[in-house]
Amino acid sequence: MAYQIIVVLTMLVFYGVYFIKMLIQHRQGIQTNLLGKETEGSKKFIEVTLKIATYIVLVVEVVSIFSNTYIDSVWLRIFGAILGISGVGIFIVSVLTMRDSWRAGIPKDKKTDLVTSGIYAYSRNPAFIGFDFVYIGVILMFFNWVLFAITLLAVAMLHLQIVNVEEDFLITTFGDDYLAYRKKVCRYIGRKK
């Protein structure tokens, strides 16, 4: 029961931050959820698949939690709780640091800033790390093969979104500034020499 409470609170905060940020930006006239809206071809496929996978993973997470499926390892469950809570913290810091430049998807004609300070000085994609940590944390607390498969798909699509959609957009939009940033900061975690 304790793990159910932990994971439900973790998910409420995580998804709450996501949707509250979208609502705040909507009230400012900023369209936040652009997944699959301003891309075409393989990039559109990646974004639409990502969007579908993230909705399905949420449903499967909830079913898994209330079905109380899990591996009988207290240490894995504790590690999952720590990882999930860490993911929420990383995600919150990421969203706050991005301020009004935060989007889900690519803003084709909307100007944003290249954010390279704060948590973005140590990771080019900390919000994605937050997603991954929450997803993996839930798996470790409430494992089942369906949840594992859909989470694996969601994590893979998040990676493809970064590599095949966002990085191309950032190079096109910010040019040398982004290339210099990319030389200093790792895609996921760490600074380069």
What's the CATH C level? Mainly Alpha
Could you say what the CATH architecture is? Up-down Bundle
Helix content: 55-70%
The coarse overall form would be globular
Strand content: under 5%
Roughly how many Å is the radius of gyration?
A: 17 Å
- For this structure, the CATH topology is Four Helix Bundle (Hemerythrin (Met), subunit A)
Mean pLDDT: 88
Instruction: Tell me how many strands there are.
Output: 0
Number of helices: 5
Low-confidence stretches: none
The helix-strand sequence is: HHHHH
Terminal-residue CA separation = 46 Å
What's the oligomerization state?
A: single chain
| Major sheet summary line | none
**Total domains:** 1
* Helix-and-strand structural type: mainly alpha
Keywords:
193 residues, 69% helix, single chain, mainly alpha, Four Helix Bundle (Hemerythrin (Met), subunit A)
Walk me through this protein's architecture.
The chain has 193 residues and is mostly helical. The chain has a single domain, classed as Four Helix Bundle (Hemerythrin (Met), subunit A). It contains five helices and no strands. It has helices at residues 2-27, 41-67, 74-98, 126-141, 145-184. It is globular. The model has no long low-confidence stretch (mean pLDDT 88).
